[in-house]
Amino acid sequence: MKTINDIIDCKNCVYRNLLYDKLSDEEYGQVNNARTEYVFKRGEVIRREGEAINSFLYLRKGLVKLYKTDHQGKDHIISVNKPGDFINLLSIFSNSNYKYSISALEETHVCEVELSVLKSLVSTNGAFALKVLNRISHISDEVIENNFEINKKQVKGRIAHILLLLADKIYHNHTFRMPITRREVGELISMTTENTIRTFSEFRKDGIISMEGKVITILDHERLENVCRTG
């Protein structure tokens, strides 16, 4: 982890309208003074389960996974988050400690704002408070919808859903480097590693995808969408 200073002012951030567009100039100054930017290398832990929540985090660049560790020491992925996501917004008003861990899946830029400043703005700026509530609701809806879409499918449909998520919503490219292992994909969709590996192999044999190491290319996007709908 290292500290950087890419954003001089929150007004210059491309994600400003997602949350901060209801702030006055003075309030922007408060956020700027309470803000720190960090870069995490692939595999670095950003927050650990059980640590105190004392800041608000949002993802500017890269990819992270949220996961819980069971009593046997095995990690279970909850979600994969992309740039623009507020990776701890669902927790900062309900818990004093993290109920999950966060780690970088690739080089990741995170902006951190002191939680006391965010809570102060929520208590004094009604329009900003409504924007925060809107984002919390939006995140909750995304989590519910994503879990619903995965749980109603069989293994092929679940893996197709993940591949389309990565290609269309995260990397915006039909060729990308898988950020998680086959085992982690299985954890994310509640399937065994063996079923996950077998399904990837079947997609490759059927000409839907190609695989070279960790690099995936979607060769037949239409067929993959059909598997996602019907699988």
Order of helices and strands: EHHEEEEEEEHHHEHHEEH
Count of the domains:
2
Identify the CATH homologous superfamily of the largest domain.
Answer: Jelly Rolls
Q: What kind of sheet is the major sheet?
A: 4 strands, antiparallel
Beta-strand content: 15-25%
Which percent range fits the helix content? 40-55%
Radius of gyration: 19 Å
Low confidence ranges: none
Q: The CATH topology of the largest domain is what? A: Jelly Rolls
Q: Architecture of the largest domain, according to CATH?
A: Sandwich
Structural class: alpha+beta
Number of helices: 8
Number of strands: 11
pLDDT averaged residue by residue: 91
Attribute tags:
42% helix, 231 residues, four-stranded antiparallel β-sheet, elongated, single chain, Arc Repressor Mutant, subunit A, 2 domains, alpha+beta, Jelly Rolls
Can you describe this structure?
The chain is α+β, with helices and mostly antiparallel strands and 231 residues long. It folds into two domains: 137 residues, Jelly Rolls, CATH 2.60.120.10; 78 residues, Arc Repressor Mutant, subunit A (Orthogonal Bundle). The protein contains eight helices and eleven strands. The strands form three sheets. It has a four-stranded antiparallel beta sheet. Strands 3-7-5-6 form a four-stranded antiparallel beta sheet. Strands 9-11-10 form a three-stranded antiparallel beta sheet. β5 and β6 form a beta hairpin. α3 packs across α4. The chain is elongated. The model has no long low-confidence stretch (mean pLDDT 91).
